[in-house]
Amino acid sequence: MTAPAGQPVPPQGAAAAASAERPLPGPGPSAAAGADRPVPGPGPSAASAADRPDPAPDPVLEPRPAVRLVIDRETLQDRVAELGAELRADYEGVEPVLVSVLRGGVVFLADLVRAAAMPCRVDFMAISRFDASEDTGVVRIEKDLDLDLSGAHVLVVEDIVDTGLTLTYLLRVLAARGPASLRVCALLDKRARRIVDVPLSYVGFEVADVFLVGYGLDLDERERGRSELLAVDDLEAVRADPALLDLAARPDAAGSLPAG
Fold this sequence. Notes:
The chain is of the alpha/beta class and 260 residues long. The protein is built from nine helices and nine strands. The strands form two sheets. Strands 4-3-2-5-6-7 form a six-stranded mixed beta sheet. Strands 1-9-8 form a three-stranded antiparallel beta sheet. Helix 5 links the parallel strand 2 (97-102) and strand 3. Helix 4 packs across helix 5.
């Protein structure tokens, strides 16, 4: 075929065949790399979150017991024996007058006199409180001493000292009677409640600010004869079920020890 003059002639023969057999372009290097790229897996934070163990459950708190054993019988008797030995040494050659306030100190006084095993005389006071006693320590003396304290070496034997207000008042009363010396021996010192810094020459134990029962200390005028000392944390529960005191008094029920 003859092309019109001035127009290009389309390829013929080998050139046309080569053009027809030219392969189509394939995907470039970028496309191939994209096709071979692996699918991304979970990142480090996702993997660590999956492997992290479940949080431990909150611990179950045991309910606080209504009564705890604070000082057992053996510990009390050992300390009373030590105090008795101290008194015997300090009062050697004299006959002191041991004064106790009814009724809490009677049990301690009786054991202390036996432990001291020394010449002494014993006398008692009974007091009652009124509205102002809590703030002033002033009390009414219901039973006074029978012994004359003039020139005597006097030892006031207390079951427990807390605010110190009442004891300070009683010491002023006794000091006015002219003793040669005036000291205090306390089985328990509840120093956390102290308001007046009353001097204590002999102390059995320092105890925390808790309600104590036993060994002369009462609960509604009962339980003074117990040979151990118990802390009552739930008074209403114990009043409803006094057997809780017996459970706490068992040797395997020991609670917190005295402070100090």
